[in-house]
Amino acid sequence: MSARGGSGDEERGVGDGGDLLASRRENLRELRSRGVDPYEQSFEVTDGAGDVYRGVDEMENETVNVAGRITAVRSHGKVTFMDLEDLTGSIQLFVRQNTVGEEDYGLLDFVDLGDVLGATGVPFRTRMDEPSIRVESFRVLAKCLRPLPEKYHGLTDVDLRYRQRYVDLMVNRESRDVFVTRSRVVSSMRRFLDDRGFLEVETPMMASIAGGATAKPFVTHHNALDMKLYLRIATELYLKRLVVGGMERVYEIGRVFRNEGISTRHNPEYTLLELYQAHGDYHSMMEITEEMVAYIAREVLGSTEVPYRGDTIDLSPPWRRLSMIDALGDKGIDIRSWTDDEAARRAARDMGVRVEPGIGRGKVIDKMVEHFILPDLVQPTFLMDHPVDVSPLAKRKPEDPEFTYRFEPVIAGMEIGNAFSELNDPGEQRRRFEEQLAQRRRGDEEAHVMDEDFLTALEYGMPSTGGLGIGVDRLVMVLTDSESIRDVILFPLMRPRPDGTDPE
Q1: Which helix (H) or strand (E) holds 254?
Q2: Tell me, what's the pLDDT at 1?
């Protein structure tokens, strides 16, 4: 069945899915019978398709080699037009039988939409002023044996997009653009930190203690050592050990794992930037946060004003500073009037906020903020001064000892990070860990564990330190106007299909 017969499988008169698969495999056999290897070893690419399209007027006397997928075919007797697309864009191929020869031209009868072709030729403009390549020769580089969805107009089934990301990237340029942007965001983040004297380091992804955050870990087992290990929930405690050791500015960008629910803002594994700066505090972390995010937006997107879900977000510094106490007070919620944990839980229930039995005052405050405050924080805001009992690694505020020097940067109603003036008093840190252990005994699986080696490190003396964590995925959501975290993670965790089969 000839690709020159139309612009898609359906237009070529092919029937159901089984017929489509059979037709493509027959074309594969036909190519091989004509001495063509449809899975070539290599092809030297000299130019991107989009680069040729944009630079056609300057390249009219050059010979170029491009490679990519065929996304459309239009045949007119002894001339065939094909659209070839790669990561840089697309270009029209102009294939004339008199140029490539009758034998090679006949191979187009067995080229299907989605096949990967390499083409050599000279850029020019057609009579319709369309940037094109006058093809002198072409090769089939990879045969596409499955029909592309919706005649290459896009894969719209959300579940299939996540399960078969390779097809999503193949047919949805918008999805490709998101992940190109994501890569550039991470590169820009590294440049910003490297230029400011931070050292990128690597810390263990498996450890005997899951510390550095209040979260439930994933558990695994090391057979040779016969020991239980945890996938890391944060990199904090290792990075602060490095500050103790004299590495005064360090950062790591890597995956962390938390055994929690899945939502449009949560995936069990995600990418986290953590950085630590000796002789800093949460004020210096605010400056780094707003400067870094604005820097990334300018470098990657060309502007600090970005659209997100119908709003325009202005990422330029300075960002708003908002105390958690003041934010709740503006809603008529006086958290200082809560005399104990039960009073806090009762106040939340009276205001229609669901809270779990037995949770403490600090977590109730977090729930109230999530319910009443976050949805209103569209523009970048530092939500400051969290309760001590939910901030076991942050310094206490001497003037207000129930609260800490901690903030969360919030954009478009999402917390995109977390930062402290780091607690560096080993005695106080031990007491905080002990309080967390008491919470664990009361049933809080996310409470922090005791880490004796980290306490030993603090006893050697850690300077005052500012620490910052940024959820890379959520930041990319904002910068790419993506509604779900799964839209910015290449391979999000998916529940297996009930029948155990791959989707067609």
Answers
A1: strand 249-257
A2: 39
Residue with the two structure tokens 């319910």: 371
Q: State the first-to-last Cα distance of the chain, in angstroms, to the nearest integer.
A: 22
**Residues 6+ positions from 479 with CB-CB distance below 8 Å:** 181, 185, 296, 297, 300, 301, 306
Give the CATH superfamily of 171-317+379-487: Bira Bifunctional Protein; Domain 2 (3.30.930.10)
Which is nearest to 66 in space by CA: 124, 8, 122?
122
Pairing state of beta strands 311-314 and 305-308? antiparallel
- 503 pLDDT above the threshold of 90: no
- Residue 214's CB is within 10 A of a number of other CB atoms, namely 21
Cβ atoms 455, 426 nearer than 8 A:
yes
Q: Measuring CA to CA, which residue among 222, 252, 228 is closest to residue 238?
A: 252
Strands, DSSP E only, in 342-459?
381-384, 396-397, 400-404, 406-411, 414-415, 417-421
Report d(CA 54, CA 150) in Å as an integer.
28
pLDDT tens string 108-147: 999 999 999 999 999 999 999 999 999 999 999 999 999 9
Residue pair 361/440 in contact (Cβ under 8 Å)? The answer is: no
**Phi and psi (nearest 5°) for 386?**
-85, 160
Q: What is the pLDDT of the chain when averaged over all its residues?
A: 92
Q: Hey, what CATH class is 3-153 in? A: mainly beta
**SS3 letters across 167-236:** HHHHHCHHHHHHHHHHHHHHHHHHHHHHHCCCEECCCCCEECCCCCCCCCCCEEEECCCCEEEEECCCCH
Backbone dihedral angles phi then psi of residue 18, each to the nearest 5 degrees? -65, -40
Q: Using the structure block, give the residue that is written with the tokens 């976050």.
A: 374
Q: Is residue 72's pLDDT more than 50?
A: yes
Whether the domain at 3-153 and the domain at 171-317+379-487 fall into the same CATH topology: no
The DSSP result for 96-134, as a single string, is EHHHH-HHHHHGGGG--TT-EEEEEEEEEE-TT--EEEE
> Amino acid identity of 473?
D
- Whether the Cβ atoms of residue 384 and residue 324 lie closer than 8 Å to each other: yes
Asked if residue 404 lies in contact with residue 391, where contact means CB atoms within 8 angstroms, the answer is: yes
Distance CA 86, CA 67 (A): 7
The domain segmentation of the chain, as residue ranges, is 3-153, 171-317+379-487, 320-375
Q: How far apart are CA 4 and CA 79, in angstroms?
A: 9
Paired tokens of 419: 């930062």
Please state, for a pLDDT cut of 70, what percent of the chain lies above it.
Answer: 94
pLDDT in tens, 461-496: 999 999 999 999 999 999 999 999 999 999 999 988
Torsion of CA 292, 296, 299, 301, to 10 degrees: -140
